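Troubleshooting: if your tokenizer reports a length mismatch, compare against these two reference records.
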Amino acid sequence: MKISVELIKELREITSSSVAHCKKALEDTKGDIKKAAELLRKQGLEIAAKKQSRAAKEGRIEAYVHHGNKVGVLLEVDCESDFVAKNEDFVRFTKDLAMHITATSPLYIKKEDVPAEVVEHEKNKEDFYKNHCLMEQPFVKDPSIAIKDYLGSIVAKIGENIVVRRFTRFKVGE
């Protein structure tokens, strides 16, 4: 099946994946853009999982202060090289993440960070994780993907391990 350049461009805009990955995903899914996007998302998560063991000792501290100066976030996101720390996609990711944290007020980075005594009293653990764990939350700019999916797509695109190390959210009066 011949895949059009327009379809590849559209998938690339949706997923931020490389042209070659987009073309292969579209060929594998016979031109179905939704299935191709899902395939690329899964591949991004697989790539991210493989890179998790690699040391991430570079990165950036991102600051975001919302309009009105009443709420803001300081965030540390680490990567493997200073080259990637300056990469446009990595910088955009950290800015998006800081804004997301400002908007959603997560308490933990991932499920594993939640103390057992906190979650044992919850009736619906998955809802608790979606509301309070950064990686499980739907991304505010695109609720169709979770933050962990966004992270996976960035890891797949950049090719380095990326770790959300820590964050602090400040709000006047709290």
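Reference record two:
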Amino acid sequence: MPPSRLLSALAAALLAAVLHQPVHAGKADDTLRMPADQVLPDIDPYFNNELLGSIIGQQVWDTLVTRDPATGQFKGQLATAWRVIDDTTVEFDLRQGVKFHNGQPFTADDVVYTINFIANPASGVTNQRNVNWLKGAEKIDDFKVRLKFKAPFPPYLEYLAMPIVIHPHAYYAKEGRKGQNVKPVGSGPYRITRYEPGKIIVMERNTAYYGGTPKSNAKIGKIEISFVPDVQTQLAGLMTGSADLITTTVPKDMVDNIATNPALQVFTVPTMRVNFLQFNVLDATASPALKDVRVRKAVMHAIDREAIAKATMGTGYTLLGAFCYRDQFGCTDKGVPTYEYNPQKAKDLLKEAGHANGVDVVLNAFLAREAAEMIQGYLAKVGIKATLVYEQYPAVREKQRKGTSGITFASWGSYSINDVSALLPVYFGMEGDDTARDKDIATPINRANTTMDPAARAKDYAQALQLIGERALVYPMYSVGRNFPATKELNFGRQTSDRVQFYEMSWR
């Protein structure tokens, strides 16, 4: 029995043993307790790529605009109105009366400082794709600013609504990134009152938070996030009452057990997150055989992606026709080849490539271990021996950026940005995570990122997606439907992605 299956069986036994024990939800002391399996390298949203970091970032910091979860429309957050001056300039009217968690009033100085800081490559923002389109910002008056782009950037509102948060300029200028990581200060609906890296993060509701935005309705008084690396331990905590919500990926068999407990619930939400296999074809690759397109195609034909999605999630997923999420602008599978599950075709391709007796590859992974082990098993059946190297995301990312990964079982949520510019340039734009470095693909992608003509953008993205498919540089598997086990007393509110919004939640 594979290790994950054994652990699942043990966890199922534990869940069954405590199935009818009373669950003591956090409603009693108005504290939502959530274990997490990620350790943030830095709590500042600009210096981590982790899902947990993005979740916390949206609670603690504010953006200029936000997307209303009820309508999908952009609304003002720290800004109240905006207008396009020209293709590379947008002017924002700022909200008055806002204060940061340390009492500092919010003004145009905070926006100008933050934008100019992150736009400077020397600042070292982890995900440069989120900020490298910005040229800078200038102050018009205390509550009016202009943002300047390096070139036309059509999806600017998408980025301003999600990853680009605003820091307090006086505090950040004095304390710097280090100080912000020790004692974080934002303006959001929750403020961090305790932070022990790798152990616990405590957030309390900001009772002085301003009204009039989708983030203004926070109701739960306190959020406690503790580091618990093992999902079985997390679920045991949920069953015995020491946890109220699980956001870690939970194997389907465990979810099924949880659903039988009348004191618990499982909330399922379709997400923009896509799971895929990324092939490293660079000189330093850990799997030189991947340089042969026939081997890459053999890998794809060897894997039954739908069986994996059903086994690990059950519902909520969609199979991908191209390397993008179906609702994103620019996403199309027209003309993109598909690689159906066909083990015999995989064997034939390996033989044609000179590997009739099999081939060794490295499979790097940082998520959904059960799914990674299933991929490993499918590959073994056609003669591809995959050595699974399972590590935390930062370690896998480092190998990708050094070009020393092999096949990476990866996941990307596009920061919930509804535009393929949040996905394609990351992996095919000649940037850090690009393990193909294919100029034919990067050229139309980068061109599409800087034109305001929607038709021209769509045409360029379609060309890139077709080339990615034809050259078999990524195997797009499925979008992720996330299951969130929780106490029955928790009302999830309007959740639209795996970046759960605590300010939407309440107690029943």
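Descriptive notes for reference record two:
- The domain at 45-182 is CATH 3.90.76.10 (Dipeptide-binding Protein; domain 1).
- The two ends are 41 Å apart (CA to CA).
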